[in-house]
Amino acid sequence: MVGAMAKFVEQTEDNLVHRARTQAYALGQLYELYYERIFRFCVHRLFNKEIAEDVTSTVFLEVARKIRTFAGRDEQDFGNWLYAIAINQTNSYIRKTSRRKKLFAEAADSIRAKRDESNGNSSEPDWPRLYAAILKLKPQHQTIITLRFFENLPYERIAYIMNIKETTLRVKVHRILNDLRNHLLTVYDGEV
Amino acid sequence: MFENEKDFEKIVNRLNIDTKPNSSHREKLREEMLSVYNDTKQQSQKHTTPFGVFRRKIMRNSITKLAAVAVIIFGVLVGMHYMGNPFVATVTFADVIKPILNAQTAEFDIIMGEDEQVPVIHDMVKGSRIRRTMSNMEDDIIIIDLEASRILTMNISKKEAAYIDLKGLPSMPNYMEVLRNIIIMLQESPHFEVEELGQQKIQGQSVIGFCAKHPKAEITIWADSETALPVQIEQIEPQLKVVCKNVKFDSPMDDSLFSMDVPDGYELQQVELDLMGSTEQDFVEGLRIRAEVFGEGWFPESVAVEDYIKEAPAIENKMGELGLSDEEETELGMKLSRHLLFIRFFKGQGQWHYAGNGVKLGDGETPIFWYQPQGSETYRVIYGDLSVEDVAPEDLPE
Q: Nearest residue on chain B to A176, judged by CA atoms?
């Protein structure tokens, strides 16, 4: 029964991706399925919700322009494609640092103010500090950390999206966490 | 701090990051995305129009020899487009384009758009001539003489033929030679990048892919993994995808297949068409005809060229039912051709946008088409009553 249901779901999603190439309604359904995931990924990569909205928009508008030529067959292909677009767009945005720095500083101040009101004694890194440390990593490593620990994607899928071997990815994660730990020791409040 | 992955996972989980989306952004983006999707290419299934009822009967006896004019014209444009946006070689790309550089003849199927049901255009190329047939118009044969800028179209069942002299097309003594020269010239272009796409199977054949990118074009070539012979070439323009499949080079081709002589017993007609001379007025007139004559008063679902290809046989049949004189049919065919040329050789800035699906001719409130002419700061917006206005970018339809 479970198997049959899984197959039914798979077929439905397959059809949805296929139909989205020619039917706006199907694309709208895919959008509803993926909007939150992509927005959440953008927030984790960009820190600021306003910027995340802008980049999420860019991602889905690119999907709208390219879905008709999208070669993938199923929902997983579509999801991987979406993440690949989102990765490119967020990395591209991060390269343009001027506006991001300002917004980051404002958002970090706001978060810290709330944190201080509720619990200012934690010894763990807060989100602004962790984000600042993540930004010190290479762009590819930033993406890996986000997909693995913030989006909770399995290694196999991240390897596919990032086009690297799973074994290589596992080794990389270990090293990236070491780097991140070192960066956390050197970042200071408000740094980006 | 953290010691390992598990520790780090716990820290991230405790961060309590606010990722709750804003519902108004979500809804607004959804609308915007679907609008872009619809504008990009209106390719949803067409509504079928019964041919028995027309708003306006145009005339009397039916002769359909020129009904295919429009189809022929954009057929030529595929060739033009193919030559005008060539691919480029790099060191890794060299093996794949070598057969193209050395070929004396070429043969391939052309598929425009994404729909699997789209008719297939079959081209045979030798010297300056192309022999073209289409899967949905089996009785029609088209010979294109690029050197003479002339097309011969023949309907073998009706024994009808027409010469179409093309204005605006540069003389090309040898199609393959032109293609070769362009490739060689662009080999040194700094704007091209070639990306290897790896291996896959196409119809059971193991192929390796290369994607050649240029600011104005993106071309993917799939070549046989062992022989490096190209088997499929895909080109994506902003509003059109063209795929050349089943590519073969240097197949023996008899010259008689490319003869521009009209066989005995054929009724012959001759017309002239300016490929580059299509205007906004021509496009508007085509919209009127498509709504009034072929759409029972409703604008077509799409004005994309590939969708027109699918409609071509039905349009030909319908023209036959209209009972037109030779002159009237010629005039109607030419008007539709110029209408299509406006889209196929679109000369505006950026992309055109069509929103006429579901709009009735005469609806003066609804914009159905807009575009930005070259050098203009404003857009031209065509409404359902076919009036046209200049509109500032901020006032464009959403």
A: B5
